[in-house]
Specification:
2 domains, seven-stranded mixed sheet, 12 helices, 36% helix, alpha/beta, Rossmann fold, 336 residues, Dihydrodipicolinate Reductase, domain 2, single chain
């Protein structure tokens, strides 16, 4: 029996707890042993929750519990999750997160700590939600260099664009996304492209082995859009690895009619990865909502239990990546 803890009990944290409760046999079969929930870190106790008996406001109790082998973080933000991550890894416990801001900003530090203490640090849910992309880059695509990626990395914005394509205004589409739990009360990270830039930065860090700042990626959101051109306007994250550096951008793009991205609608993500020899692979999946994200977190939990040691596949260090602007005239060979 392996016992884990969850840090945070909002949309994603609650989803992790419920999936873990409802899928015991499948998880045990995949992990090779039973997994139980040992504790939940919360800001305030929730006496009416079925998980109330597991809740604590003191992370020290989790940190010092020798029976807990791993912490799954679902708090959001950077400062508090970073402190929890560092304390978790230094305590010799694995750390799994869905927090793209944390991984984009502090991933190089967490990789170093995980390596020092020989424990897993995994973050599949931080980039694609329910769309697997981290593990394919770490494993299936690790034998060849990756020189181009493009795709839809923010399902909330994609849902909004899909709603606008149905005739809704931008404001109506945002309200519908919020009503469905896809968008926060303040949706700026999604609609301004910030979330996509963070995810692209993580992918680039994995590809190049260098720290990539989302602030260095030119980013334009969808707030000014009035027309989706029949569903062909997509918020794309694009990057090409060139001899002079990496050219990268997040912006609304009118995609080709035969592009795979035209098929990615509603709350879906999609990404195309091109390796050496122009070999392309594509990945698609649900990107928004509690259950898809929680499912990706639990896939990392299973992997960490099956292989409870650090892996440096696609790790990155503190050296800064040179990020150049995306210029269509210079990169005409890359089509979306």
């Amino acid at each position: 029996m392996k016992k884990i803890a969850i840090a945070g009990f909002g949309t994603v944290g609650g989803g992790i707890a419920h999936l873990l409760r409802d899928n015991q046999k499948v998880l045990a079969d995949n992990a090779g042993e039973n997994i139980s929930l040992g504790a939940i870190l919360v800001r305030t106790m929730k006496a009416d929750s079925e998980f109330a008996h597991l809740m604590t406001t003191d992370f020290t109790t989790i940190e010092q519990d020798e029976d807990i082998c791993l912490v799954a973080e679902a708090i959001g933000g950077v400062d508090v999750p970073f402190e929890i991550a560092c304390r978790t890894l230094k305590a010799g416990k694995g750390f799994v997160t869905a927090n793209k801001a944390l991984v984009a900003e502090k991933g190089h530090i967490l990789h170093a700590l995980a390596k020092e203490h020989n424990v897993p640090f995994l973050f599949e849910a931080a980039v694609g939600g329910g769309m697997p992309i981290i593990r394919p880059i770490r494993t299936s695509l690790s034998s060849t260099g990756i020189n181009y990626v493009y795709g839809i990395l923010n399902a909330t914005s994609n849902f909004i664009l899909s709603e606008m394509d149905k005739g809704n205004t931008y404001d109506q589409a945002v309200k519908e996304a919020q009503a469905r739990g896809y968008a926060e009360a303040d949706p700026s990270a999604d609609v301004d492209g910030i979330d996509s830039a963070r995810k692209l930065a993580i992918i680039l860090a994995m590809i190049t082995g260098k720290k990539t700042s989302p602030d260095d990626i030119r980013t334009v959101g969808i707030t000014a859009l009035k027309d989706t051109c029949g569903g062909r306007v997509k918020l794309l994250a694009r990057a090409a690895v060139k001899d002079d550096g990496v050219h990268a951008e997040v912006s609304p793009v009118l995609v080709d009619e035969d592009s795979l991205m035209t098929c990615v609608k509603s709350d879906r993500n999609g990404i195309v990865v091109r390796g050496e020899g122009s070999v392309e692979t594509a990945y698609f999946g649900v990107g928004a909502g509690a259950i898809p994200t929680a499912s990706a977190v639990l896939s990392d939990v299973v992997e960490a239990i099956r292989r409870p040691v650090y892996s440096d596949e696609c790790a990155w260090g503190a050296e800064e990546l040179k990020v150049l602007p995306w210029t269509d005239s210079e990169l005409a060979e890359y089509r979306s």
